[in-house]
Amino acid sequence: MYRVLSTNVLCYGSGEHCIENRIPLEIEMIKEIKPSSFGVQEAHYQWITAFEKGLPEYSYVGVGREDGKQDGEYSAVFYLKDRFTAGDSGTFWISETPDVPSKGWDAACIRIATYVKLTDKETGKSYIHFNTHLDHIGINAQINGVKMIQEKAASFGGIPIVCTGDFNVPEGSECYKTMLTSNLGDARKMAPDTDTCYTFHGFNPDKIRETIDFIFADKKTVKPLKFRVVNKKINGAFYSDHYAIYCDFDLI
Question: What is the spatial distance between Cα 12 and Cα 18, in angstroms, rounded to a whole number?
Fold first, then answer.
C-alpha cells in the first residue's frame, strides 16, 4: 500500500499564522500522516529547506517557478528516500512555452507542474507522482494546465499515475470535468472509504468551506482504498489555510 498527500502550505501568512509559527505544525502533520510521497503548493525555498531539515527521511524533486531554480513557489514532490528510487522527473511551466519560466494564457501568475517516477526498492513497482498548483484567475490556463498534465501522464505509456494539487476550482468546474476526460479519476470518489470534508478554510472554517484541492488517480492502474482530509488543528493551531488531503492506494 502507498499513501500520497497534498498540502498547500500558504507561502507566508501573518500574525499568529505567520510562516515561522506554522512550519513546525506542517512538519508535525506530515510526520503523523507518514505519506509515501507528498506534493506541496506555495512552498518557496524557506519551506523546502525547512522540510529538508525537519523531514530528513524524505528527498524531493522540484524547482522555483520564477526562475527554474530557487526563486518563487515550488510544486515539489517529496518521497521516502529509503523506500523509493527516483527516476524520470521534471518540471514544466503551464504555458505555451513549457520548458522555460513563463506565464501562460490568461493566468495571473506563473504556474508549474512537477513530476517524478518512484520505484519501490522492495517490490519493483512504480508510480509517477504529479503535483501542481493551478492559476486562481485564468480559466483557460486552468483547463490547458490539466490538458498538459494529461498529455505528459499519457507519455509514460501506462505507468500508474497519481496527481495531487491545489486546482483552485470546485468540483463541477470546466477544469475539473476536463481532468476527468482522461484515464484519471477523483480519488475521493474512487475510494470506498472516504469523506466529504472541504479543503480550504482561510483560517475561518465557520464561514469559508471550499473544496479546491484534489488527488486524481489512474482508473486502470491505481486502486484508491481510503481518502481523508486532515481536518484538524495541530497543537491547537491551524497548520495552513488549507487542510491537507491524502489517499491510500494499491497498484493494480
Answer: 6
What are the residues whose beta carbons fall under 8 Å from the beta carbon of 109, sequence distance 6 or more? 103, 135, 136, 137
Beta bridge partners of 242: 200
CATH number at residue 72: 3.60.10.10
229 vs 244: CA distance, rounded Å: 6
Give tens-digit pLDDT for 194-248.
Answer: 999 999 999 999 999 999 999 999 999 999 999 999 999 999 999 999 999 999 9
What range defines the domain where residue 223 resides? 2-251
User: How far does Cα 177 stand from its chain's mean position?
Assistant: 18
Q: Is 197 helix (H, G, I), strand (E, B) or coil?
A: coil
Strand partners, 218: 184
